[in-house]
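Dig into what follows:

_____
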Amino acid sequence: MKTKTIAGTGVFLALTIAFTLISNYIQIGTVSINLALIPIALAGIVFGPVAGFLVGFIGGAFLLFAPSTATFMAVNAFGTVIICLFKGGLAGLISAILYKLIAKKNELVGAIVSSLTVPILNTSLFILGSLVFYQGSFQQLVTLFVTINFAIEFGSTVLLTPVIKRILMSVKYHKNEQKES
């Protein structure tokens, strides 16, 4: 990895951790408003699949310390660790691969598809993990949580990721212009 990639991935990781910690205190009812998927998507878009995976995976490690995770840990600690670590990591990895494939034709469409993919995969892997590791322990709670949380994560990620990506690319373009002058 290049120094710029390592530093940029670190910035997106710091944002993911900050958003994860902040989301513990921003709630609608019992549902946390989590914006951590935005930097996961951006890390994959800007720096590639490895960066997307690392930011999602390490961000998931910090999710283990969220107060809402305690309920899941009490039911199945091993399953909770697996779900938290891999749902974000795989979402970052797969969305970045999709971005790379689609961006060859159209960068904006690639960014939109990538930003759609992160919350869909994150939530789908959470549901799959819940079915495997919690086996009906709290199906109604998971269904309610997933419905509201998914809508918020999906909307915020889809709206903000392409816009932030465009801003980042614009800044990069202007820096390159200044170097050439």
Helices lie at 3-23, 37-47, 49-63, 69-75, 77-103, 107-133, 139-180. The domain at 3-180 is CATH 1.10.1760.20 (Arp2/3 complex 21 kDa subunit ARPC3). The first helix runs from residue 3 to 23. The chain is about 85% helix and 0% strand.
